[in-house]
């Protein structure tokens, strides 16, 4: 189905081409091995966990778990997969209950979901799956509600230290289907030095300030006699399809695509939310590149802003090094009435088996989320720490990676996305629709594209 989505949208909007969605979750980070030291805790919106007067009976005690074996399926690859397997082995050798953990890596999250789907029709399936929250909602009847485990006085877990946008993505109708295993977000990458040379001493704090700086960058490129570079400057639009950029613009500007259990793209609020970017494009303050990435444009000052996620920080840093640029750059939230970033990433979930295996699975998840283990995991993945306690252990990494540190400072502005299994379909339509609109600009209208997106959702749901 994924392969036909761009074709359906492009045909309907009369485009020549679209680009497939790519969601990159992890990469090897650019962190040097440095010693740990504490830092000032970051502000975070916490998710309160009600504590009952008496914790629910789980039907088994941890001291009855000797030699209980649990299997974890995940979509990590490369060094992240190796580290996860190593940490599972360490837990197996060190936990006081005698629990054994095995891991199985799938090539990516889509193939992981397909394998889980097949396994649920057999007696053999994993005890723990690390999958996207919207994937978990496809398996609701097979997933253990983690709430009774969280409130256990002896081996529970306080979620007050986990930002709400991270913790609440898998909390649906009072049922906790998962806990965050990793989180990333999409940001605006911003060339500070270029902005200073344009006369701006501070990063934009509003949509109006963003527009002023983007248009000043475009005006800079129009000063010379070369007409071929007059389109440069400002915001370089995405060259690859992803849902995070359009959803971030919508969320920051008051748009809402999921209401009353239905996806609706064609609304006045959504049109108004994306009209800001459309106006930038119409006025030459945003432009669409033809290369495979925008990193070189930010480094070469052909763009003042581009978009990227945590996994792309190292690539952007390399682009500055390759161009021998000494410019300073950082990451910013998307501007608007509610400036922010949209957090995304996989969750730990426990599949239903029996009391012993479920408790053993929980104890392993709890161990992986302990601050020292989470900090160790973040050093490898380069993604967000999912708790502020683990962020406190990464002061030296923050000092060595200022853009990553700036991203962590934006965690309090993180927002969730629609809590429904249908998001797996809707996010692809949003990604391709956004690319279709700007790929055909100015021959398409937002209303026309949104109408096609709404029709596509209905057609593919039925």
Widest β-sheet, arrangement of strands: 2-1-3-15-6
Principal-axes geometry comes out as: globular
Distance between the termini: 13 Å
Secondary-structure arrangement, i.e. CATH architecture of the largest domain: 3-Layer(aba) Sandwich
* Structural class label: alpha/beta
CATH fold-level name of the largest domain: D-Maltodextrin-Binding Protein, domain 2
Question: Care to count the β-strands?
Answer: 16
Percent strand: 5-15%
Number of helices: 19
Mean pLDDT: 90
CATH class of the largest domain: Alpha Beta
Q: What's the domain count?
A: 2
Q: For the record, what is the CATH homologous superfamily label of the largest domain?
A: Periplasmic binding protein-like II
Question: Helicity range of the residues?
Answer: 40-55%
User: What is the rounded Rg?
Assistant: 23 Å
Low-confidence segments, given as residue ranges, are 13-46
The main β sheet shows up as: 5 strands, mixed
């Amino acid at each position: 189905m994924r392969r036909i989505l761009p074709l359906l949208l492009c045909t309907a909007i009369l485009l020549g081409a679209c680009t497939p969605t790519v969601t990159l979750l992890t990469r090897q980070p650019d962190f040097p091995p440095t010693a740990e030291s504490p830092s000032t805790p970051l502000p975070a919106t916490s998710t309160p966990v009600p504590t009952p007067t008496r914790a629910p009976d789980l039907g088994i005690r941890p001291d009855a778990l000797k030699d209980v074996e649990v299997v974890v399926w995940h979509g990590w690859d490369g060094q992240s997969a190796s580290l996860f397997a190593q940490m599972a082995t360490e837990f197996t050798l060190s936990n006081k209950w005698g629990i054994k953990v095995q891991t199985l890596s799938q090539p990516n999250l889509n193939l992981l979901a397909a394998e889980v789907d097949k396994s649920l029709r057999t007696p053999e399936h994993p005890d723990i799956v690390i999958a996207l929250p919207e994937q978990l909602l496809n398996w609701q009847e097979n997933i253990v509600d983690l709430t009774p485990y969280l409130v256990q006085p002896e081996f529970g877990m306080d979620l007050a230290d986990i930002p709400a946008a991270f913790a609440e993505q898998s909390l649906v109708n009072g049922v906790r289907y998962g806990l965050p295993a990793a989180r990333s977000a999409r940001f605006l990458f911003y060339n500070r030095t270029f902005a200073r040379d344009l006369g701006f001493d501070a990063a934009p704090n509003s949509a109006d300030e963003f527009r002023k700086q983007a248009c000043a960058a475009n005006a800079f490129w129009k000063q010379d006699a070369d007409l071929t570079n007059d389109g440069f400057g400002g915001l370089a639009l995405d060259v690859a399809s992803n849902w995070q950029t359009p959803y971030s613009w919508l969320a920051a500007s008051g748009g809402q695509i999921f209401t009353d259990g239905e996806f609706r793209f064609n609304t006045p609020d959504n049109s108004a939310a994306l009209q800001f970017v459309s106006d930038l494009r119409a006025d030459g303050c945003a432009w669409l590149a033809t290369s495979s990435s925008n990193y070189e444009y930010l480094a070469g000052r052909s763009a003042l802003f581009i978009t990227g996620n945590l996994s792309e920080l190292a690539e952007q840093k390399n682009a500055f090094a390759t161009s021998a640029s000494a410019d300073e750059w950082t990451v910013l939230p998307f501007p608007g009435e509610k400036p922010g970033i949209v957090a995304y990433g996989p969750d730990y979930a426990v599949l239903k088996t029996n009391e012993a295996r479920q408790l053993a699975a929980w104890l392993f998840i709890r161990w992986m989320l302990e601050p020292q283990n989470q900090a160790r995991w973040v050093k490898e993945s380069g993604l967000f720490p999912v708790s502020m306690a683990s962020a406190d252990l990464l002061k030296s990494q923050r000092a060595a990676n200022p853009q990553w540190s700036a991203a962590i400072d934006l965690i309090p502005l993180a927002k969730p996305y629609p809590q429904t299994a249908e998001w797996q379909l809707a996010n692809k339509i949003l990604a391709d629709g956004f690319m279709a609109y700007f790929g055909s600009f100015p021959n398409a209208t937002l209303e026309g594209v949104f109408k096609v997106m709404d029709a596509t959702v209905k057609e593919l749901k039925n």
